[in-house]
Amino acid sequence: MSEDKIRKAKGFLFDFDGVLADTMQDNFLAWERAFRDFRAEIKKEDYFVLEGLKLIGIAKTLGRKYNVPEEYFMEIVKLKNKYYLENHCFSFYPKIKELIDFLKEKKKSLAIVSASPKERLEKTVSEDFLRKFDIVLSENDYEKGKPEPEPYLTAIKRLNLKPEECVVIENAPLGIESAKSAGAYCIALTTTLSREYLSKADVILNNHQELFHYIRHEFF
């Protein structure tokens, strides 16, 4: 994205887990417990690189790797959701609320583009925070999930913007691929994976302090 196009950015689209909220460890523990019910011991790195897939896609990928019969995949997804809601320590990353308020003050369009179930977002995130976003997409709002471009293209269309007017903030390779395939500028955060996994992003930042500084400096 050229400097001129950066200055014209109108929409900021955020992945949820690992970008807005520090939830990836709790998500992993829920997946780990669900798979353990079927005698499979998954590894954290196996899950983190799949973040962004629809839940059934994660269950299928991990299930096949660990030789879990396919007829149990839907049950694993249900158990994962149940275990997460029963045992999680939800928190936003530092500077996130400040960043969202800053973008709202600047009249920018905002979206959450997540593969999480809408039920989980509504039960764990305050209504006041969700209302700050013009669009909140969950796994049932699109057919083909990340890494396909559909999730971000759907959000961009609903915001009535063009891809080149949008900036996506991601933390995982599948989300980055989705954003870039949709034609958006992509900022990656090393919240859950190292830089080697995020190389397709336009820029890679270490934390949310850097993210806030970068957005304020480059887009305003």
Report on the structure:
The protein has 220 residues and is an alpha/beta fold. The protein has two domains: 3-22 and 91-219, 3-Layer(aba) Sandwich (Rossmann fold); 24-86. The chain is 45% helix and 11% strand. The chain has eleven helices and six strands. It has a six-stranded parallel sheet, with helices on both faces. α2 packs across α5 and α4 crosses α5 (73-86). The longest helix has 14 residues, at 73-86. It starts with a helix and ends with a helix. The mean pLDDT is 94.
Percent of residues in helices: 40-55%
String of helices and strands: HEHHHHHEHHEHEHEEH
Number of helices: 11
Mean pLDDT across all residues, rounded? Answer: 94
Largest sheet: 6 strands, parallel
Tell me the total number of β-strands.
Answer: 6
Q: Structural class of the secondary elements? A: alpha/beta
Query: What is the CA–CA distance across the termini?
Result: 15 Å
**How many discrete structural domains?**
2
Shape: globular
| CATH superfamily grouping of the largest domain | HAD superfamily/HAD-like
